[in-house]
């Protein structure tokens, strides 16, 4: 798993199903931080405050990462909701994700095995149709080069998924550039070759 590039939810997503007369509503969202995961959970709990249970789980970080996770059975028998939901998330191939499964009890007891299947299946159903996008960790560089290298520099930007944030013209030309961290080494090499070494490249900051 490349921790610098991975799938994340593209937005808010909701599905629902009925199991033995109980209504299960699954809400999935992007959660790049623990704080945002908890805020999302609180919003869903507020929306469905009349439900019997609002069970939840989240994984902050790359798919399968257990460094920042959380879960809650929210009143269901211990181990029948939060843990199965988290397990489904960890195997779902999506990172930075939070999910709440809301249950309106329909009068039929599902038993522990039935609950585990219901909550696992609800998360899997939510992930199946989830719109996703790619999270790309990026880095910003300061680049200083001669005027003669401007055209070549601009032509090489798309190949390295690099974007110019600002430019400044003086005795030389200065750029601030943002690009995926996985592209930095190749970008440095290509830029050094292009300018025959007449370039200054400084790392400014990286995100995530």
UniProtKB/TrEMBL annotation:
The lineage of its organism: Bacteria, Pseudomonadati, Myxococcota, Myxococcia, Myxococcales. Belongs to the IMPACT family. GO terms for biological process: regulation of translational initiation. This is YigZ family protein. Residues 21-126 form the Impact N-terminal domain. GO terms for cellular component: cytoplasm. Transmembrane segments: none annotated. It comes from the Bacteria. NCBIfam families: IMPACT_YIGZ. PROSITE patterns: UPF0029. Gene3D superfamilies: 3.30.70.240, Impact, N-terminal domain. InterPro entries: EFG_III/V (IPR035647), Impact (IPR023582), Impact_N (IPR001498), Impact_N_sf (IPR036956), Impact_YigZ-like (IPR015796), Ribosomal_Su5_D2-typ_SF (IPR020568), UPF0029_Impact_C (IPR015269), UPF0029_Impact_CS (IPR020569). It holds the Pfam family DUF1949. Coiled coil: none annotated.
């Amino acid at each position: 798993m490349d921790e610098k590039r991975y799938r994340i939810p593209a937005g808010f997503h909701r599905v629902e199903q009925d199991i033995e007369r109980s209504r299960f509503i699954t809400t999935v969202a992007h959660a790049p931080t623990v704080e945002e995961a908890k805020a999302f959970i609180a919003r869903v709990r507020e929306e469905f405050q009349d439900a019997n249970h609002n069970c939840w789980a989240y994984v902050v970080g790359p798919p399968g990462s257990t460094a920042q996770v959380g879960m809650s059975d929210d009143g269901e028998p211990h181990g029948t909701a939060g843990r199965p939901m988290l397990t489904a998330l960890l195997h779902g191939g999506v990172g930075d994700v939070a999910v709440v499964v809301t249950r309106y009890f329909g009068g039929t007891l599902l038993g522990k095995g039935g609950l585990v299947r219901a909550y696992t299946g609800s998360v899997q159903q939510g992930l199946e149709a989830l719109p996703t996008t790619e999270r790309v960790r990026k880095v910003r560089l300061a680049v200083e080069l001669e005027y003669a290298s401007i055209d070549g520099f601009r032509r090489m930007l798309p190949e390295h998924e690099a974007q110019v944030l600002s430019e400044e013209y003086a005795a030389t030309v200065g750029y601030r550039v943002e690009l995926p961290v996985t592209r930095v080494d190749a970008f440095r090499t290509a830029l050094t070759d292009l300018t025959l070494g007449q370039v200054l490249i400084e790392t400014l900051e990286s995100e995530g």
